[in-house]
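Researcher: For the record, we're logging two predictions in this thread. I'll number them. Prediction 1 follows.
Model: Prediction 1, sequence and structure:
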Amino acid sequence: MTPTLAGILGFVALFVLLAVRMPIGLAMMVVGAGGIAVLNSTTAALNNLGSFAFSYSAVFTLSVIPLFVLMGSFASVSGMGADMYRTAYSWVGHKRGGLAAATIIACAGFAALSGSSIAAAATMGKVSLPEMERYKYSPRLATGSIAAGGTLGILIPPSTVLIVYALLTEQSVGRLFLAGFLPGVLLTLLFVATVFIVAIMNPNAGPPGEKVPLKERFKVLMNSGALIFVVLIVIGGIYAGVFTVTEAAAVGAGLTFLHALWTRRLTVAKFFAALLDTVKTTAMVFFILIGAHFFAPFLALTRIPVNLAGAIGDLAIPAFAILMVIIIVYILLGTFMEGFAMMVLTVPIVLPIITTLGYDPIWFGII
């Protein structure tokens, strides 16, 4: 069996396993180990199974993932997300579509603490959806604003997805955070503008909420001061070079923990719930990363990424056109694949193509 044929069969097997709902990490382990056994030897595959899981996960730089997840968990139980929503609501909630716009703004603020789209959407959904239902918002606008706002967690630092991308591509996490900040802000503004346009075109979709007095707005803004302070310390510390990314994650987790204690919102039950949520999320991410680490050597043996990059580089097609095709493929994959799974599966193949075309991996990661 040729390496190329083995690679094609490996991808077919992988998609079959995903279709029967096998976890992506386990599916990549099975296909990667099986492919190495076919192309190299069973001994090599067994050696990888025995050593890769520990050697790859026992890396100091990976500690940034549970620390940022823990920071988001403490922020959630301490009510920072709810405070952020009330602040955004007090300033824009009285406008048509204002409650949906406040949801997106609050998602952006909470994403800067949690680094997770799921956490941002889940937290804001609990707070904002009842309010939008109370004011008879269109279900499409209400749920759409929560879903759209949740996606900001992928882009706004400290994004867990950007951290994983940095690990997969061996790029600087700090540079990715720096690159993702401005696009995250711009995307937030575009989402808010879209909400207001929808509300203007269909006034019944987003009725205005109650107007909050100016004095009360500043009072509510002060309640969000802790969130703003933590974000400035963590993200500002990384950009200024005061902290490494791992140190910033530890500082952020410590500050959100202290805030939860100070506000007396952290009970023993919530404390252990935050720890359990952190363990579950970290285990999921690590399992996917370990699976990707099994799959990558198999791909290297097939030489599919190298051959594909060389073939595309020889085509008389503008690099931008190829980039657009890659983006369209990602859009199609995103309709049925989870973001983490899609990234760890495609990056080893797409990255050589991107570098061959002359694009910066960090720029592509943000795209």
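Researcher: Logged. Prediction 2.
Model: Prediction 2, sequence and structure:
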Amino acid sequence: MRIWRIETLAALGLVVSALLAACKPALSPSTPPSGSTTPPGINRGTTSTATAPTGPYGDLRIAVATWGEERFEPPLVTATGHVVLNPIFDWMIRADKGQMTPGAIEKWVMAPDGLSWTYSVRKGMKFHNGDQLTARDVKFSFDQYMRKDAFFSNTTSAVNRVDVVDDNTVKIFTKGVQPYLPTLQSVASVLQGLVMPKSYVESNGWQYASAHPVGSGPFKFVSHAGGDSVTYQANDSYWAGAPAFKNLALILMPEETTRVATVRTGVVDIAEINLDSVPQLEAAGFRTAAVDQTEIAVQLHGTYDSRAAKSAVADIRVRKALSISINREEIMSTFFRGKAGPPMPPYTTESTMEIDVSYWKKYVADLYSYDPEQAKQLLKEAGYPNGFSLKLYSFPVSGTPWLPKVFEIIAGYWSKIGVKPEIVPIDLAVWTSWRKGPAEPLVGQSIMMRFPGGNSAPRSLELPFSTKQANALVSGANPELDKLIDAIYAEPDANKRKEIIARGLKMGIDTYTVFEICSAPSMLGLGPRVDLSSWSLPLAAPQFTAFAGYIKHER
């Protein structure tokens, strides 16, 4: 039974209180200590002096649209699945304003020959169970990410072995030159950089450790109600400073209207929202925040797969027709209310390093230029004068709950050129399980996905096109792409890397297996009790829960 699927907001408020109360012996009060009549974090302008809290207090409730597969075993988790892990674990390397910054790793240095890295582990860090975080835990984390069943293969592809030098130093021996290794451990990439407790996992096994996760992050795990909520409690001794809020609840609320209503009634403090909800919240006196700029795109799966040989999308003319039939300018000005940015190559944004942003903005604008008449002609030349049927698998993604709405708009454009789109709602976890292969239902069909802005340029090329990755949109039909990707990671010279990246991006984007729509803002609706002033917006990572420990009380 879903706790959060209820009939009225009043019932929702009661359930929130009951859920949080049941998670621990006693909740700290939602108001500051006695002596103040001011609600938590709200400055009423009174002349009375409130007693300053000496530590974390109050409850922070966050509503998210989706959170992936709900696993607490980091090696098996997708990028989206990190939504629920972020409060618990520390990232080896953090990021701010497009630059990597120290996390559990304070310093990272590449050897002169480029074949190893030395990581210096921050001293004095502890896991939630009291164990000291040392180099042995960092090595253990690398080893876990190199498991055969790990969801991402990046660490396995890049790392030969990891040696413990001393309690605070590890040396990572790489497979050839790996100039981007620290990026893989960075929160900006949301891949394989969480630090896991070696002793705790080895003593209890992953079955227990994933049911009772222990990390070193700003919040301790309290409880998990599948498909419903995860609750946490502040780590008072967190190395970067204790969170302002004592208790945190992440609540799964797929319905936009419910998320907006719960912000307006004070049931939650923060909620992911669509752009359509911004005017009504702001008109009612609530604040909103654009926390990320995210590229959104259509992906066509299995177009080079032999199983799709007779499907329409196996023809590049059809794929181009689908792309140029979309009026991107109209979507940007209407649906995104003029706040969207231009389309870029797959998985890149205007802040991606090692690409010529001006060049690619123009190249993509020309490549995707809106021309429905040419689109109809291309379909006719490909043998589909009356169109064809195409499934559009649709799902919300954390940070972009409005994705299904954009897909509906795109389906409308496709209908105008004769395509017969069928929108099929599924869960994100279903698509995740299908895309390796891909599974039969996905062959020759389409999805819409968002690409976070934290990827490095080679990663932006690798994720959609490499045969080593789950998407593998060209299915090995162009082995030169794999060679270029490998060459990028092996090239220590930045200028040469940039040249190789440009060649690879053009090769990939010209296949029309994935085509960008625009760069869209991910929005949050804010209640009156929270202060995000410590956040550097847009955030350096695609998931705002990675910064939950820095949310303050509004005063």
